[in-house]
Design a protein that fits this description.
Strand order of the largest sheet: 1-2-3-4
Number of helices: 4
Largest sheet: 4 strands, antiparallel
Distance between the termini: 12 Å
Radius of gyration: 15 Å
Structural class: alpha+beta
Order of helices and strands: EHEHHHEE
Helix content: 25-40%
Number of strands: 4
């Protein structure tokens, strides 16, 4: 599949982390989504019903990030992919980059990321 929808820089406030203060206080996470699906019908029809609604994708991702608390962003990333696959049956593959800009680390970094790719 060569068609993709890309959503970059979705910011979600959630409560994931190994440390108690991360779970208690929460922090902002960033999500970049590359969604593979057949867009050929939408390219011709110019009809939203022939693609997926970007806002709805963002809401599903946000809800997956905020409905549970995980120790690892790896697990949170998997939860987002699972929720998107359930809500959008036309999406065939997801590459998700999940960033944790305020990751408690002993070295100074801009952000810690995990990147996963899942297919149906």
């Amino acid at each position: 599949m060569s068609d993709e929808i890309i959503i970059s820089g979705l910011r979600v406030f959630a409560h994931h982390g190994v440390f108690e203060h991360e779970k208690r206080d929460g922090q902002v996470f960033t999500l970049d989504l590359n969604l593979s699906l057949d867009l050929s019908k939408a390219c011709v029809s110019d009809n939203l019903d022939d693609t997926v609604n970007y806002d709805e994708i963002c809401c599903v991702a946000r809800d997956a990030m905020t409905s549970h608390t995980y120790d690892l962003i790896e697990r949170a990333a998997q939860a987002v992919c699972d929720a998107i696959f359930v809500a959008f049956p036309t999406i065939e593959r997801i590459t998700l980059t999940l960033g944790k800009p305020s990751a408690p680390m002993s070295c100074e970094v801009d952000c810690a990321y995990v990147k996963i790719t899942r297919s149906r």
